[in-house]
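Quick one before lunch.
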Amino acid sequence: MDSAPPPRELLEIAIDVARGAADTAYRMRVEGVSVAATKSTATDVVTAADRAVERQITDALRRLRPADAVLGEEYGAAERGTEAPARVRWIVDPIDGTVNYLYGLPHCAVSIAVEVDGEVVAGVVRNIHTGDEWTATLGGGAWRDGQRLRCSTETDLGQALVITGFGYDAGRRAHQARVVAELIPQVRDIRRLGAAAVDLCVVAEGRADAYYEKGLAVWDRAAGGLVAAEAGLLIGGLKGLAPGPDMVIAAPPALFGPLHDRLAELDAAGGP
Ligand code: LIP
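Model of the L-MYO-inositol-1-phosphate complex:
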C-alpha cells in the first residue's frame, strides 16, 4: 500500500477544504436555509447546505487525494475508483450542530478528521459563523488561531462546568434528562450548546471543564476528540470502553474518574 503523508500535510489539506466548506455553509445560511429532509426523527433534520457542503468536501478530497476513503454524515462512504484498501480515511461532518445552523445560532461547525491505518492523526473544526478554527495533529498539540490549547485544571467535580447534549429520539431524551437532573446539583452547572465538535473544542481550551454525551457518531467526535485529547483531556467511554455511540466523556485527568463514576451510577450509557 502507498505510504501515508505526515499528519501536518494531511492537516493542511483538511484546513484548506474546511475553510472553503465553511464559506459555502455561511453563504447558504445568509441566503436562507430550510429543512430538506429528516433522518431518525422529525427533529433530526438535514438542510440543503448539509448535503451541498458534504459534496463540496468530498469532491475536493477526491481531487487532492483520489486513493483515500471518505466517510461523511450525509452520504456515508464515498465511492472510490479502486477496491485497493485505503490507509487514509477522511471523516466528515459537513455541518455539526445542524439545528443551530437551521436557526441561525452561531454554534455550528465544519468538522474534518483524517485517519491513517484507523487512527485519527489530524483534525480541524471550523465555526461557520465566527471563523474560530481549532486544529490538532497526533502528538503535535491542539491549537486555535495559533494559540496552543490547554484544558481546565479543575479537580473538584462540584466546581466543574459540564457540557452535554441530547439525542433526537424522545425516549432517549427522557433518559438523558433524568441523568442530567441527577447530575446538575452535583456540578457547578450544565451547558447544552448543540454541536459536539465545537463542545469538545470549547472544553479543550478550558472554557468549560468537562463534556459527556451519549449517541455521538464518529463524525461528530473524530476531529474535536483529537483536539480535546491533544489539549490534555482524557477521552473515553464508560467502564473501560473506547469513546463511541454509547458514551463519550472528555475531562481533565482529575475529573475523569469522578465524572465517569457518577455517569456509570446514573446509567448514562443506558436507555434507548
Ligand atoms: C449534533 C451533535 C450534538 C448533539 C445533537 C446532534 P448534528 O449533531 O453535534 O452534540 O447533542 O443532538 O447530534 O446532528 O447536528 O450533526
